[in-house]
Design a protein that fits this description.
This protein has 331 residues and is of the alpha/beta class. The chain has 2 domains: 6-68, Orthogonal Bundle (Helicase, Ruva Protein, domain 3); 76-247 and 254-278, Phosphatidylinositol Transfer Protein Sec14p (3-Layer(aba) Sandwich). It has helices at residues 6-18, 23-33, 37-47, 52-68, 82-91, 121-147, 171-184, 199-208, 214-217, 228-231, 266-280, 302-329; strands at 94-99, 105-110, 154-159, 189-195, 220-222. Strands 1-2-3-4-5 form a 5-stranded mixed beta sheet. Helix 6 (121-147) links the parallel strand 2 and strand 3 (154-159). Helix 1 (6-18) runs parallel beside helix 4, helix 3 packs across helix 4 (52-68) and helix 8 packs across helix 12 (302-329). It starts with 5 loop residues before the first helix and ends with a helix. Residues 81-241 form the CRAL-TRIO domain.
């Protein structure tokens, strides 16, 4: 197509999207771009290395996935009863700790201590997508308005505390959620900060890093210890995730940090009340116990499947060897 610059690619992509005439796709696209169409087109172009045809195909497939799975209504589908939602929050550790000085939301994720063992896969996927949609349709438009400029991405701080070999049993679920993100919420994370990394993570990272695309590798920053000193360069102390406040380095702060992944944290209270309110405005009574909101899982991209298999085989081999060595060394 003779595209020679990013501006031309954006322009050509926009013209192709304008030709989409199916009303359901046009409607759901509005929920995707939230008025920031240019930034949305750029995200999909980046995800496909600025190939307009591939980016167009990716976006159309994303819109069809949204329509086929009624994603536009997922923020009116509460996870009930409330005890089940509490169980999810106790086992799928994620929350909003605050914002960077540039206004980007900071999501804190307890990778090592998330067990994903309190409900079915569908509930965890439903919760994951609801957080994505709340971020994109409520949080980001709000902070964009507050800052007077488009803010369409976030920062994620990944806590590896407690990461164990048994986490391999969750690779399938994590692969499903990461594939959903890759295909339908591309380039929404500006930077990943990894903190409190134990030896097992270092072993994983050596396996994973060469398998990642360069664009993704550049986003991942493995910080020393709890990462506090580095993170304070981009956010205020009050917005540090609770797991990053260890090992004070000349700080006079002594306040106890709140675990933002807790169901009692304002973020999760606001999210849950938002979903419940939208359910009730449809004329429904208090939601009774119901099944999960089933979403069709896209086929994991080949690279992720291969990556998961490589991690599993490499680590099992590594730790089997360690166990054999330990037994030989025992008296």
């Amino acid at each position: 197509m003779g595209i020679v610059s990013e501006e031309e690619a954006i322009d050509e992509f926009g013209k192709l999207i304008d030709k989409v005439e199916e009303e359901p796709l046009k409607t759901t696209f509005k929920n995707v771009h939230q008025g920031y169409m240019r930034e949305t087109l750029i995200r999909f172009l980046k995800a496909r290395d600025w190939n307009v045809i591939k980016a167009h195909s990716m976006l159309v497939e994303c819109l069809r996935w949204r329509v086929d799975n009624d994603i536009d209504s997922i923020l009116s589908k509460p996870i009930v009863p409330s005890e089940l939602y509490r169980d999810l929050r106790d086992s799928q550790l994620i929350g909003l700790s605050g914002y960077t000085r540039e206004g980007l939301p900071v999501f804190a994720i307890g990778v090592g201590l998330s067990t994903f063992d309190k409900a079915s896969v569908h509930y965890y996927v439903q919760s994951h997508i609801q957080i994505n949609e709340y971020r994109d349709r409520v949080l980001l438009p709000s902070v964009s308005k507050k800052n007077g400029r488009p803010i369409t991405t976030c920062v994620k701080v990944l806590d590896m505390t407690g990461l164990k070999l048994s986490a391999l049993s969750q690779i399938k679920l994590v692969t499903i959620m990461s594939t959903i993100d890759d295909l339908n919420y591309p380039e929404k994370t500006n930077t990943y900060y990894v903190v409190n990394a134990p030896y097992i993570f270092s072993a994983c990272w050596k396996v994973v890093k060469p398998l990642l695309q360069e664009r993704t590798r550049k986003k991942v920053h493995v910080l020393s210890g709890c990462g506090k000193d580095e993170l304070l360069k981009i956010m205020d102390y009050t917005y540090l995730p609770h797991f990053c406040r260890r090992g004070s380095s000349g700080s006079s702060h002594h306040t106890q940090a709140v675990d933002c992944s807790s169901v009692d944290h304002p973020f999760h209270q606001q999210l849950y009340n938002y979903v419940k309110h939208h359910y009730e405005t449809q004329g429904q009574a208090e939601p009774a116990k119901q099944g999960s909101f089933h979403v069709g899982f896209p086929e994991p991209v080949a690279e992720r499947v291969e990556m998961a298999k490589t991690i599993e085989s490499e680590l099992l081999h590594k730790f089997e060897n360690c166990s054999v060595g330990d037994r030989k060394a025992s008296p």
